[in-house]
Amino acid sequence: MKKTIITIIVLAALVGVLALSLTACNPDKNTSNDTILFGKELLALTKQMDTLTQLNNGGADIAVMDSVMAGYYTSSGDFAGKMVVLDNIVLSEEQYGIAAKKGSEAFMGKINEALIALNENGRLAQIGATYGLTSENLISAATVNPYADATDNSWNQIVNDGVVYIGYTEFAPIAYVDTNTDTLIGYDIELAKAVFEFLNALYNTNIRVEFVLIEWSQKENLIANGNIDLIWNGMTITDDLAANMTISVPYLANKQACVVLKDDAEKYNTLAKFLRNSKEAIVAVENGSAAYKILTMEI
């Protein structure tokens, strides 16, 4: 797996600035590490959306989150015109994957097969265009299904059950509720439905898709305990997750981005300013997310 990590520490070294290692001064906010990459305080929150709410309400100075969400909310979402993404600060470049319980290669092989086919027939591009994520698509004609020949019983079990339970959290444009129709929509929601529609037609199965709202920090336990069958919600592929779960081929590109209020953008619009001014910032992040692990220097 190829993964490019561009951390603030590396960037700081390029300009001769010492790496930041600051004490987290709010341990009751679920920060499990004594040091953070930058900022004076880390707010570890339940959802990515909560980080933007804290930023909007003045409870945080910087929100760190997935670029796919940051781009949506700063350009066309609820906070459009109020917040900006700091294009000069990229904490990591990542790949999203879908996760199943360890040993579910046959099941994941079918999901990979469907993703590749949906790219070939144009359905993947249609879904991407709906949610503004066309350029982020990682499935191509060169994508190889590593589990194409898997023979374990995981796929048969899903077929026999007749239902697949997919864990998700709400963050647009990946998964969110359309307030006009009170319907769960989003890139991953529509993609999951399309995958099982394809598989049902191809294999003459009748697998129903059920989406289960979860707490993101509990996703590994929920998979291991069988509470859900898949994590399909903008999950960043990491070596640790790949070692403990069965992961799909990478299907979507993402970055870990910093979002600030538009009025504060001048304070952070160069690397030098960011390194200087972020020292006193309150930083908001989703607990258990890739951004949380970067900020607490777990990865």
The H-and-E topology, N to C, reads as HEEEHEHEHHHEEEHEHEHEEHHEH
CATH class descriptor name of the largest domain: Alpha Beta
Helix content: 25-40%
Q: What count of helical segments does DSSP give?
A: 12
Overall average pLDDT: 88
CATH fold name of the largest domain: D-Maltodextrin-Binding Protein, domain 2
The general outline is elongated
Task: Describe the structure in your own words.
The protein is α/β, with parallel strands linked by helices. The chain has two domains: 127 residues, no CATH class; 161 residues, Periplasmic binding protein-like II (D-Maltodextrin-Binding Protein, domain 2, 3-Layer(aba) Sandwich). It is 35% helix and 25% strand. It contains twelve helices and 13 strands. The strands form three sheets. Strands 3, 4, 5, 6, 9, 10, 11, 12 and 13 form a nine-stranded mixed β-sheet that branches. Strand 7 and strand 8 form a beta hairpin. Helix 4 crosses helix 6, helix 4 packs across helix 7 and helix 5 runs antiparallel to helix 7. The longest helix is centred in the middle third of the chain and has 17 residues. The chain is elongated and about 60 Å long.
